[in-house]
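[Q] Does anyone have a clean structure-token version of this?
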Amino acid sequence: MNDRGFRLDFFIAVAAVLISAITAAALIYQTRVIGQQFAATIWPYLNVGTTYAAGGETIEVTNDGVGPALVRSAQLSVDGREVGAWNDYVKALARDRELRKLFLRAQAAVQAGPAGNATITMSSIGPSSTLRPGESRTLLKISLPFNVPVRAMVKHAVALEFCYCSLNGSCWTLHATPGQMSPDPVPVSHCTNAAAIQSNAVAVTLPTALPTR
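[A] Here you go.
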């Protein structure tokens, strides 16, 4: 009789432990699902877009996600070399044998008067920069008053590297090449760099943007 009572108590205890384990597992799963649902409501998604027009090009970054993108790092490379500012790209274009004549022509047009309408607009981005959901930021805009051959501009390879995070600390890296489809951002544990892309100038007219030699 005592053995039977002992076995009954043992099975009851085992059942209680199993029920507790199942309840704990369900709570953990529910917490994880809630966390994933919350993360989805603040998920940023950066995308780099490039527009080539008759008179130049525009490079912009857009947050297509549903939460703010907290930029931790931004790096610019031109012709395979890391640089710190958009002026380095403009100088590479202006030194190009095919493009230099056009830049000098634009420079002469600006010096002749405001009718030339040739400008270069730059924007900085880096640590402490934030892009709200749906926000686009123009990083570079080159506008010349005549046709610019796209083939000459695209041969100077530009690469952009971003590392950004969401409000809950999830982070991603994005490596984009203007003129090509942006790949999906890659999840990372954290951002290891703190680089920035400087503008050097905003709405700069060509005489001050062109290299002297």
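[Q] Thanks! Anything notable?
[A] The mean pLDDT is 80.
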